[in-house]
Design brief:
Blueprint lengths: L1 H27 L6 H15 L4 E4 L5 H29 L6 H15 L5 E11 L2 E8 L10 E4 L1
Antiparallel strand pairs: 1-2, 2-3, 3-4
């Protein structure tokens, strides 16, 4: 099902968000200081092409990530967030587009807090009895492995 969702996402607007993140990454790569920020943008640009079947784990952001997120919001984050919100609102105008709109809103949050965030593959997601438990696997090219069972109260 995620293959069909990713294909439709790519055709009907995913390319716009991918292009926005790609341009943001290229702008950051102009300076030497911005190279790590640009690499983070490229990582999330890849997520914009195929978002279904993947989640974003924000985890525990440290002080450096918090300060980087503040600077990011001031310079490039708010533009990407507004773009994602507008695309999400357009998707939500139809009932069929609501899942795509929710993906765009997920990216709006990511656009405001990209540092300290990781892309995870959602293998199984169950809900029940007040728990939201899912087995998550870190993308092999995007980071180290952590505890595979993630539960939130």
């Amino acid at each position: 099902m995620s293959l069909i969702g990713n294909f439709l996402w790519f055709i009907f607007g995913g390319v716009l968000l991918w292009l926005a993140w790609l341009i943001a990454g290229l702008l950051c790569m102009i300076t030497i200081i911005g190279i790590p920020i640009g690499l983070q943008c490229f990582k999330f640009a890849a997520l914009m092409l195929a978002p279904f079947g993947r989640d974003i784990d924000y985890g525990q952001a440290g002080t450096v990530s918090f300060l980087a997120n503040i600077l990011w919001i001031l310079f490039l984050g708010w533009e990407l967030a507004v773009t994602a919100v507008v695309i999400g609102l357009v998707y939500c105008l139809t009932i069929i587009g609501i899942p795509f709109g929710l993906q765009a809103f997920k990216f709006a949050r990511l656009a405001l807090m990209p540092f300290g965030a990781r892309i995870v593959r959602a293998l199984l997601r169950t809900k029940g009895h007040g728990f939201d438990c899912g087995i998550l696997e870190i993308e092999p090219t995007l980071g180290d492995r952590t505890d595979p069972l993630l539960c939130k109260l």
